[in-house]
Amino acid sequence: MKVLVIGGGAREHALCRSLSQDPAVTELHCAPGNAGIAQLATVHPVDQLSGTEVAALARQLAADLVVVGPEAPLVAGVADAVREAGIPVFGPGRPAARLEGSKAFAKDVMAGASVPTARSYVCTTAEEAAEALDAFGAPYVVKDDGLAAGKGVVVTADRAAALAHAAACMGAPPAGGWGRVVIEEYLDGPEVSLFAITDGTTVLPLQPAQDFKRALDGDAGPNTGGMGAYSPLPWAPAGLVDEVLETVLQPTVDELRRRGTPFSGLLYAGLALTSRGTRVIEFNARFGDPETQVVLARLRTPLAGLLLAAATGVLADVPPLRWAEEAAVTVVVAAEGYPAAPRSGDVIEGLERAEAADGSVWVLHAGTAADDAGRVLSAGGRVLSVTATGKDLAEARERAYAGVAEIELAGSHHRTDIALAASRAAD
Ligand code: AMP
Ligand code: GLY
Prior knowledge:
The protein has 427 residues and is α+β, with helices and mostly antiparallel strands. The protein folds into four domains: 2-91, Rossmann fold; 120-184, Dna Ligase, domain 1 (2-Layer Sandwich); 191-317, 2-Layer Sandwich (D-amino Acid Aminotransferase, Chain A, domain 1); 327-426, Alpha-Beta Complex (Glycinamide Ribonucleotide Synthetase, Chain A, domain 4). The protein is 32% helix and 25% strand. A hairpin with a 3-residue loop joins strand 13 and strand 14 (220-223). The site of adenosine monophosphate (AMP) has 15 residues, from strand 7, strand 8 and strand 17.
């Protein structure tokens, strides 16, 4: 099977790594990729937001499967273009990708499917925003309606800051935005990321993971795309996956099919396990980053066949997924200034030393690029995702941090508490 992966972050590096381990894969390509992916796949300098360019590349390569990693190409309709070219694609078309592209649309789908989520208002004026903030009270949750790479959400006890963020969202919509803001009730309790693979009808949940969204230890600092993750979750209730399949994932997939915009690809449910039950915080229309790094580290079912089954509508024929007993932890090494103003162009050293000879620690590249001298340079906010497995979270964590300690990147920062509480709770 010839597979083309679209994207160039650590999530795509993790996808490429798993795909390269699937014996069914004979050729692996990635566009645009990064310096790490280039060691596993042939990389192509293609504009990942252009459906025409991606479909042309897929045709030229005679790809049997295209896997779209990030949200931006999905929301831009890249999966539709590939599908129209007659090539199986893993990832929803533009209408279903609005589940991630518009928080207001996601709320509407959830209402239609009776999926439990935070109560919310969609506002388009400062007056409406102020009213909504006062209706819920502090802490305030203010969300940009459109895509914002995980950085469009402000959770704060400061009413003025909440209003200022609302004004910024409404006044200057980013690409894909509508100048609307979603204000919702605050959800307490731990967060869980649960992914499901779906062909639009059948839904296969993966194992849950937990992400660390804030930049600094102790969940301080601004929201980021995600600073680390681990799986499994020893503290999660036993029936969680079945409950979420029944109350969230299947109803959402059924609702989108009913609306004539079937969702095939990866449905990501970001959940809060609140004192009043499980609630959806957000949906994403693609694999999460960095959770994918730990979920795929534990998946034993060959990935290419699984994604192809979803892309071709035969997921019901796939046998139950197989999982390693091991735990996995990933720690993101971010550039100086991330998330506000990341610095790029610094040399990264220690990449080989960071990986363990026994295969239990590996470095996934996110924002990296190789220069003419063959050196690897930082080229993005999240630069690397150091991933490790172990018999339990404590061992996986120790190995991941031993890997991080070998990385030399001027000004870089990482959290030191990824999986810390969970590894202690599991003792
Ligand atoms: P989102 O982009 O919707 O995933 O939001 C990013 C992060 O903001 C989430 O992972 C939560 O940590 C936080 N957040 C979003 N919505 C809420 C909410 N209603 N209550 C509490 N925290 C929230
Ligand atoms: N890790 C959060 C996300 O992928 O959106």
